[in-house]
Amino acid sequence: MNTTNAKPGGTKPNKLTGLGRGLGALLQDSENRQAKPSPYESISTMTEIGLEQIETNPFQPRTRFDEEALNELADSIRVQGIIQPITVRQLGKDHYQLISGERRLQASKLIGMLHIPAYVRTANDQQMLEMALIENIQRENLNSIEIALSYQRLITECSLKQEELGERVGKNRTTVNNYIRLLKLPPVIQASLRDTRISMGHARAIINIDNPDVQIKLFNKIIEEDWSVRKVEEAVRNLSMVDEAVPARKITLPKQEMRSLQFKLSSMFGTKVMIKADDKHTGEIKIPFTSQEDLDRILNVLNYSA
């Protein structure tokens, strides 16, 4: 639909069609996922709304937009029109508030459009925040820290459990937890991950080290010597990850193999796994958890069902 030829004047939205799809059908990646039932009231109509009638979303999780990318989107809209309508909620007569589609709205303003196609839905403030965060995660080219912060906000501000969050964004709990764990890294490492100086792979290896000072030393090596992810993983495996309380003579597996196994299990479960073994071929594997939800996540990795 090309809206660049929309007639100016007239502030009353013009109904175009009736829809019954939920948030999942609007915000998911249509190429990779099927629509899931929405926890919100379904959309009833799609309308054309004057841009001057729409105020920005106060819950917008992104505050910075790439100017070059915005201009490219504006050029695309000039040629192709708005392919994916924005989503708004109605605050009053001829007064709307943006829920999702900030870039499309700003790009439309850049090329002087007067009206824009929009889905109108009912939503309270918490639903506004949740929809904005989910749309942002699925539609924008976010870095790992931005995704992690969005996940954390959905959990703390929208009272979602990791399993519910995973369903909303189409990710399993392990993936969600791996992102959230990044927020435990020292600020300097988080900033470098945000600025793409290191990758998610680098960070996921570093997070398996408990000592922040050691984490930073390893991070400096990565930056100074341009280490690959594989080299970082090898360096982490080479660090002593075996419980110091266990004498070396009691370890039946070679120390290097034990470290490697412990590293792999820690990565798998998203928490530091501890292994103890003695010369009688007995021992234990400890997988710590901090809450019922964390335990459920670990059981899910084990494919355990009661």
For this entry, give a set of tags.
six-stranded mixed β-sheet; two-stranded antiparallel ribbon; 306 residues; 13% strand; alpha/beta; elongated; Conserved hypothetical protein from pyrococcus furiosus pfu- 392566-001, ParB domain; 13 helices
At a glance:
The protein is an alpha/beta fold and 306 residues long. It has 13 helices and eight strands. It is 45% helix and 13% strand.
Structure explained in plain terms:
With 306 residues, the protein is an alpha/beta fold. Helices cover 45% and strands 13% of the residues. The chain contains 13 helices and eight strands. The chain has helices spanning 23-27, 67-80, 102-110, 125-139, 144-157, 162-169, 173-181, 187-194, 200-206, 212-225, 229-238, 255-269, 292-301, and strands spanning 14-18, 45-50, 54-55, 86-92, 95-100, 115-120, 274-277, 283-286. Strand 4 and strand 5 form a beta hairpin. The longest helix is centred in the middle third of the chain and has 15 residues, at 125-139. The chain is elongated. Keywords: Chromosome partition, DNA-binding.
Annotation, overall tally of beta strands: 8
The ordered H/E elements are EHEEHEEHEHHHHHHHHHEEH
- The order of strands across the largest sheet is 1-2-6-4-5-3
Major sheet attributes = 6 strands, mixed
Rounded to the nearest angstrom, the distance between the terminal CA atoms is 51 Å
Could you name the CATH homologous superfamily of the domain at 14-124? Conserved hypothetical protein from pyrococcus furiosus pfu- 392566-001, ParB domain
Individual helix count:
13
Mean pLDDT: 74
Indicate the radius of gyration in whole angstroms. 24 Å
Tell me the overall shape: elongated
Keywords: Chromosome partition, DNA-binding
InterPro entries: Chromosome_partition/occlusion, HTH_ParB/Spo0J, ParB/RepB/Spo0J, ParB/Sulfiredoxin_sf, ParB_dimer_C, ParB_N
Domain ParB-like N-terminal: 47-137
Protein name: ParB/RepB/Spo0J family partition protein
